[in-house]
Design a protein that fits this description.
Radius of gyration: 19 Å
Number of domains: 1
Strand content: under 5%
Structural class: mainly alpha
Helix content: 55-70%
Order of helices and strands: HHHHHH
Number of helices: 6
Number of strands: 0
Shape: elongated
Length: 146
């Protein structure tokens, strides 16, 4: 992960250099904060509120275990992280089933707790993608540039 600028100086070692979205367009902390807010609302808050509504109508097995993380994992699948989406969904579903049945965690607590995993994975992926691509650290194919 040794991204280099045009002068051949390591961008990771240059304290004066800031990642940018192109010539003259620095990547601001506000843009990342706005992105994280959108991810939080779209992939955590809204699906969990739908999940809580389903919980009252169908019970915890359908709403938490089956529907639980489908939105976040669908986004992962759509942005090209197909294997990650399947692994996150399978892992989250297994954890939800274990927390619900043998341990006895309430459905409402389970909704808020396990909804974090897909939202965090998407947020981390997008932030890394933005900061690395704007710093010249990854190519359009998603691989690092030396």
């Amino acid at each position: 992960m040794n991204a280099r600028n045009d002068e051949g100086v390591s961008m990771l070692m240059s304290p004066g250099k800031r990642p940018s979205l192109g010539p003259g367009k620095p990547l601001r902390r506000g843009a990342i904060a706005a992105l994280l807010t959108v991810v939080f609302v779209a992939l955590y808050l809204v699906p969990n509120l739908i999940d809580l509504t389903l919980l009252r109508q169908t019970g915890p097995w359908v709403s938490c275990v089956v529907f639980g993380d489908i939105v976040g994992c669908a986004i992962l699948f759509i942005i090209g992280l197909r294997v990650t989406a399947v692994v996150v969904y399978a892992f989250a579903t297994a954890v939800e089933a274990l927390l619900l049945w043998p341990i006895g965690v309430s459905g409402a607590s389970l909704v808020w707790l396990t909804g974090l995993l897909p939202a965090v994975v998407v947020a981390v992926f997008l932030c890394l993608r933005l900061t690395l691509s704007s710093a010249g650290g990854i190519s359009k194919r998603g691989t690092e540039v030396e």
